[in-house]
Amino acid sequence: GLPLIGRRDTELVLTGWELDALALHQATGVASLALPRGATCLPPALLPYLEQFKRITLWLGEDLRSWEAAKLFARKLSLKRCSLVRPGDLQPRPLEALNQGLNLTKILRAALPASHKSIVSFRQLREEVFGELVNTEQVAGIKWARFPELNKLLKGHRRGELTIFTGPTGSGKTTFISEYALDLCTQGVCTLWGSFEISNVRLAKIMLTQFAGRRLEDQLELYDEWADRFEDLPLYFMTFHGQQNIK
Fold first, then answer.
1. pLDDT digits over 195-247, tens only?
2. CA distance 79 to 75
3. pTM
4. Which of 14, 54, 196, 235 is packed most tightly, with the most Cβ within 10 A?
């Protein structure tokens, strides 16, 4: 949508999909752009293109992930000039709203101001509270497939939470946490390991063995098969080991 933007345009609607931008332009005539990598990614390289706009409305999608992304992008773009369209049955993504015959101009006018980063009212929280009540399972986090007792304790792996496991040397912390991470990783949770004591090769060997559920050193002919499957997981390792300087 960028070639359709004029230098004098000061208001913009940011969407997560090309057809949403087209639907908005058709229904309202407002300047609208689609993010090139979808509703959950705003590359820093794009920020200069958005500097000319005094008001930006983010209407990214119809799920909680899009709503979280919209709030994050508003902080990047400056809260003072951003408004958010809260996902809901009466406010679906622009293309769906157009197909349902909804008034897209009215929805845009009802967008919530991103406001000051340190001050909120219940009016701004109201829809989020309702969203958490409606999406109880999503809010509870991603459940572990192999650890039902852990699900009872932690309710699931939730965004923005830190869990610390402690125990004496040799008590099985690394073995358990690698199982813990592998369980989530196989469900698509992007995982980064920062192991400052165990080498990445040894850690990867432990996790691959757990993933395969067998002693691969006794069945080397199966290594490539399991390694290929393991390689497809969203799993990464940091290269820092031992003592590091402050920089």
1. 877 888 888 998 898 888 888 888 888 888 999 989 889 999 988 766 667 77
2. 5
3. 0.50
4. 14
As a three-state string, the secondary structure of 87-114 is CECCECCHHHHHHCCCCHHHHHHCCEEC
- The Cα–Cα gap between 203 and 195 comes to 8
Token pair 């902080």 is found at 75
CATH topology of domain 2-123: Dna Topoisomerase Vi A Subunit; Chain: A, domain 2 (3.40.1360)
Among residues 153, 177, 152, 75, which one has the least CA distance to residue 117?
A: 75
User: To which residue do tokens 């610390």 refer?
Assistant: 164
Between CA 170 and CA 178, with CA 176 as vertex, the angle to 5 degrees is 115
- Ranges of beta strands (E only) in 4-140 are 11-15, 32-34, 55-58, 82-84, 112-113
